[in-house]
Each structure stands twice: as C-alpha cells, then as structure tokens.
Amino acid sequence: xxxxxxxxxxLTLQWPTDLKLNVTPAQFAQLAIxxxxxxxxxxxxxxxxxxxxxxxxxxxxxxxIAYFLVKWMEEEGGHGIAFDSSTGFxxxxxxxxxxxxxxxxxxxxxxLTPVQRRGFVPLCPDFVIExxxxxDSLSKLQDKLQEYIDNGTQLGWLIDPQQEQVEIYRPxxxxxxxxxxxQLSGENVLPGFVLDWQHIISNQ
Length: 204
What we know:
This protein has about 200 residues and is α+β, with helices and mostly antiparallel strands. The chain contains six helices and twelve strands.
C-alpha cells in the first residue's frame, strides 16, 4: 500500500511496464496534485495508471478536436460543458478517468456544487473522445471506451490514426468501425456536431 505524507519537491520515477500499484482515492488525489505534468488515471480496482506526455503530433490533433467541439458549442448555443484531456472524472464504478475530450449536458453539470466542479468531476461524461497515440495499447483503449459506456456515456469515439479508423461506442449496441475518411456525427447526443477526420489528421 502506498503511503503519502508530504511529497518531495522533486520526484524522479522509473515505471516498469509490468508494475502494478494500487492507491486509494485520497492517495490518487494527492498524486495528481503533486504531479500536474502527468496524466494520471485510476482503475475501478485502484490500480494507478501513469500516462506520459503526448508527442507533438498527438498534441496537435488533440487541440484541434477540442477546437471543433468548442466551436460547435458556441454555434449551437451551448447546452453542455466541454472538457480537455487534463480533466479528471470520477465514474460511478469508482475509477478516475481523463478522456482526451469530453462533454456533459448542462442540466447534469448544474446539479454539482461549486466544490464538486472545482475537483475531479463526480460524473461520467455523456460524450467522450479518445485519440490513440503511438504508445497507446489499442485493447486498453477499447476497454476504456467500454467502461465509459457501462458507466453512463451515451456516445464514444476511439480515433485510431494507426489503424486509420474510428470505433463508435453506443449503449446496448455493437461497436461500429468507420474508415477515417468518414465524417463523425454527434448523432442525437450532440445534435449538429460533425467532426471531419481530415481536419484532425492534417499537420498543417
């Protein structure tokens, strides 16, 4: 069991790929505060997941995704709240997750107290996007998308540049796989939101 008191000023951590470390929700919160440069997640069973910073190409694609999501919100009047990849969510199963982009209906967001809004969001997003980077395991991302759906997400996209495809996740349905040349629709979850894949893979 990991015990945290006062974190040191500087911490260098070498993380073997086969090492599993379990932490409590309180310990996870301390770690996240002490390591703002890392994207930390925690599974429903308490396993700590340390994600390194993304490379330039993935970072470029991430910010373009966020731009188009916010642009749609502004044009459609904003019936929800969008979040970037640094936002932590506490899912109903107890996991702490940080999708690359997320959106929550405004009426659900308004049920939260000011304190809840400032911390890890105690809601599962209605919509999530995960963008696979070179270092990401496809199977783990697929499990993560299914976890979102199982916890209340209504629509999820797994964008996979390596396989040149997008996997669409919906409650009670089989995963749909689309080639990356197709436009992605927000369907009835985000009415009017369309993401052109070519805008995302462009490095210009």
